[in-house]
């Protein structure tokens, strides 16, 4: 079976309307009164002498380059006179112009009121030309350009118009005084004026606009095409409900013509686009699909290198297209590598003219109809950045196309989910709050919408293998909070399973995770808790112990948590290896809350044997569980709580802490009798050796090291690192300067503070002993 993107792309081009991208012809005319400021009345056919007079008062026609307007006769060689300096009158002129506009409207298949506003009078002398370019929208509502060539003797100057692979060459020469030649083309068509080989040409240029609400011309009856598209879309919608379906979530069909955001709507589409829209609107509605107009954008950045002429440019950036008020060209540089590419769809329009509040959505190449339909597209905007310093030359470019975008109505939330978690989490939160405040049951449309959206979000939830930081955890908390508020136990179960499977657990989610788990059966909540702990216990044991403590608090059936508790204890004791040996995250340091939460949870779950193993392991591994860093703080916390003070494992931990403190208190505590100090220096360089000798010398209070700065800095850093009982100052006299080292009683003072703390902690632990 063909992909739907190819099938749809084969049908739509067969829907053609009566008009074309251009219209041209000749019109019988009674010559108008044409007057030009500074010259006077112009005789027609144009006389060479008056052509020279017109050139004398005219200005070189410029072209646009981004925000700039430039004059370059290698790009555009012609003369222009502003509309304000041109006066057209005569009894028949308005009637003649209306007749030309009517012919143009038919040729372009435009309905409704069409108006022509004079833009410029152009004078082409021998050699004049204008290279390939596009016209831009010069006034609101402009959709096309009309040129009227007045009678004059000249050769060459053909107008070439191109659009989507088609090209037409129009010879607009007109020497008959009773006729004018005209041509009109949609503003986004690429066109050029070939060189005038002899004589002069006088051309009026008009901007064509449409007023009011415009409806596209009705295309021929395309019942067969509409039926085929309807069947295609219906089959697609049915297939999308299958779990094995691989078709795209949305379809993007680029339009034939270019549109600015201001003119993008269903009722201002041009020609074939309008015909296709008329069929698609009906087919999409019959197939229960949503149809939108939108702007498709591709933004690329990357490395570049100079072309043949780029090094001589000094501006630092260049646009690939120039707008003369309108003209566009390519810059001379070459793309080396595209480093970043962002593809999005935005600026949504519905067939009824409304603008839905849909965020910009990403799109995939496989969603284009047909695939590869953007290949070979010229950029709408392009910037070249010259190499500076260590940075090589680079580029930025943007492609924009208007397109039809379709998706099955039943898949609206799946498409919306493509906007990403930043958008969907906020929307899910809003739905949960609306459902709660409405007091409805789970059969309500709001709940069902939230449930379906959550399903799409969970299916595409990104893995966070080894992440650390607040961002991913905040998203998990937000999701859990909304699911809990919705009482959506199906997705709570699925998300808690994903938390362990996708390495989403961080620890800060414990409170939200606990609230969510309590909506499940005790057995299921315990099983999911065990999965999370088994996956993460070796890396973040403290977070896992906190989770076990929170889950066990108030649990109706704490015995169900025994397997989860066993998994955590066995991991802590080294009896269970990490489930993923390639897990990139480094284990977090052990802190007192790990012991506090674990022994608290084990008491609630009533597994004293496991608690005994934990205490035995902790006391037997002083390198990992230091007395002052871990055991004493944990014992103080646990014995300070009435709920845990009498636990046997806590009493054992308390006893070990008391023994450690009492032994240290029993040690003599007196200030040093002389200037001898401990020598903790391990560096054996000559200068540190001198420092060591100074430290143990009972008779020396001061040592002066006269040395280069790097030597002084080294010795001073060793003193700080090893906590030597020495104060350091620099004496900045002489050369080199001197480091003055003076002994102090820092170690003694630290011991005094430690003795005070030890006595207080013994008192607190003694209270725990009495409680026991």
UniProtKB/TrEMBL annotation:
Gene3D superfamilies assigned to the protein according to its UniProt record, in alphabetical order? q2cbj1_9rhob like domain
All residue ranges annotated as the Prolyl 4-hydroxylase alpha subunit Fe(2+) 2OG dioxygenase domain in the record? 120-207
Q: Which PANTHER family match?
A: FE2OG DIOXYGENASE DOMAIN-CONTAINING PROTEIN (PTHR33099), MYND-TYPE DOMAIN-CONTAINING PROTEIN (PTHR33099:SF7)
This protein is called what? Prolyl 4-hydroxylase alpha subunit Fe(2+) 2OG dioxygenase domain-containing protein
């Amino acid at each position: 079976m063909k992909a739907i993107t190819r099938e749809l792309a084969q049908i739509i081009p067969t829907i053609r309307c009566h008009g074309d991208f251009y219209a041209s012809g000749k019109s019988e005319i009674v010559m108008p009164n044409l007057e030009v400021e500074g010259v006077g009345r112009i005789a027609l056919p144009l006389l060479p002498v008056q052509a020279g007079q017109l050139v004398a008062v005219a200005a070189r026609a410029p072209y646009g380059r981004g925000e700039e307007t430039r004059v370059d006769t290698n790009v555009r060689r012609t003369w222009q006179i502003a509309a304000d300096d041109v006066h057209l009158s005569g009894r028949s002129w308005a009637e003649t112009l209306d007749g030309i506009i009517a012919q143009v409207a038919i040729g372009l298949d435009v309905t409704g009121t069409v108006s022509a506003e004079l833009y410029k009078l152009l004078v082409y002398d021998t050699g004049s030309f204008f290279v390939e370019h596009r016209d831009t929208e010069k006034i609101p509502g402009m959709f096309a350009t009309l040129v009227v060539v007045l009678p004059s003797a000249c050769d060459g100057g053909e107008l070439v118009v191109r659009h989507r692979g088609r090209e037409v060459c129009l010879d607009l020469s007109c020497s008959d005084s009773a006729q004018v030649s005209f041509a009109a083309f949609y503003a986004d068509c690429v066109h050029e004026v070939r060189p005038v080989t002899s004589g002069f040409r006088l051309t009026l240029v008009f901007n064509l606009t449409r007023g009011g609400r415009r409806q596209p011309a009705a295309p021929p009856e395309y019942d067969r095409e509409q039926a085929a598209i309807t069947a295609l879309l219906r089959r697609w919608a049915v297939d999308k409900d299958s779990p094995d379906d691989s078709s795209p979530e949305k379809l993007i069909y680029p339009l034939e013509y270019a549109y600015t955001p201001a003119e993008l709507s269903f009722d201002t589409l041009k020609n074939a686009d309008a015909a296709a829209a008329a069929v698609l609107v009906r087919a999409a509605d019959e197939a229960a699909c949503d149809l939108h107009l939108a702007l498709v954008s591709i933004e690329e950045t990357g490395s570049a290198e100079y072309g043949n002429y780029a090094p001589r440019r000094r501006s630092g950036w260049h646009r690939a297209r120039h707008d003369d008020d309108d003209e566009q060209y390519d810059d001379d540089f070459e793309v080396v590598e595209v480093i970043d590419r962002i593809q999005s769809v935005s600026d949504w329009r519905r067939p009824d003219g409304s603008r839905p509040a849909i965020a910009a959505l990403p799109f995939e190449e496989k969603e284009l109809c047909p695939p590869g339909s953007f290949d070979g597209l010229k950029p709408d905007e392009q910037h070249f950045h010259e190499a500076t310093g260590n940075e090589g030359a680079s580029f930025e470019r943007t492609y924009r196309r208007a397109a039809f975008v379709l998706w099955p109505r039943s898949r609206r939330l799946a498409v919306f989910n493509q906007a990403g978690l930043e958008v969907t989490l906020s929307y899910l939160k809003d739905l949960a709050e609306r459902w709660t405040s409405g007091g409805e049951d789970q059969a309500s449309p709001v709940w069902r919408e939230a449930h379906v959206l959550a399903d799409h979000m969970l299916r595409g939830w990104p893995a966070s293998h080894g992440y650390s930081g607040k961002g991913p955890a905040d998203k998990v908390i937000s999701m859990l909070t909304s699911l809990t508020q919705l009482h959506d136990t199906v997705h709570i179960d699925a998300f808690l399973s994903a938390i362990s499977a996708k390495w989403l657990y961080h620890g800060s989610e414990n409170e939200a995770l606990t609230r969510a788990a309590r909506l499940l059966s005790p057995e299921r909540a315990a099983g999911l808790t065990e999965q999370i702990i088994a996956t993460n216990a070796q890396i973040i044991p403290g977070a896992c112990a906190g989770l076990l403590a929170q889950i066990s608090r108030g649990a109706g059936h704490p015995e169900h948590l025994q397997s989860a508790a066993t998994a955590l204890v066995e991991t802590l004791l080294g009896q269970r290896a990490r489930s993923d040996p390639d897990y990139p995250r480094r284990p977090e340091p052990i802190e007192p809350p790990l012991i506090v939460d674990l022994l608290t949870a084990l008491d609630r779950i009533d597994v004293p044997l496991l608690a005994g193993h934990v205490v035995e392991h902790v006391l037997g591994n002083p390198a990992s569980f230091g007395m002052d860093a871990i055991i004493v703080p944990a014992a103080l916390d646990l014995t300070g709580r009435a709920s845990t003070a009498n636990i046997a494992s806590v009493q054992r931990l308390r006893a070990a802490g008391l023994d450690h403190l009492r032994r240290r208190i029993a040690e003599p505590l007196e200030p040093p009798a002389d200037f001898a100090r401990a020598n903790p220096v391990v560096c054996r360089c000559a200068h540190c050796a001198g420092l060591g000798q100074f430290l143990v010398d009972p008779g020396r209070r001061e040592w002066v090291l006269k040395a280069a700065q790097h030597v002084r800095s080294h010795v001073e850093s060793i003193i700080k690192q090893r906590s030597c009982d020495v104060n350091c100052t620099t004496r900045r006299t002489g050369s080199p300067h001197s480091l003055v080292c003076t002994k102090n009683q820092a170690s003694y003072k630290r011991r005094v503070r430690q003795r005070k703390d030890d006595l207080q902690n013994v008192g607190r632990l003694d209270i725990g002993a009495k409680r026991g």
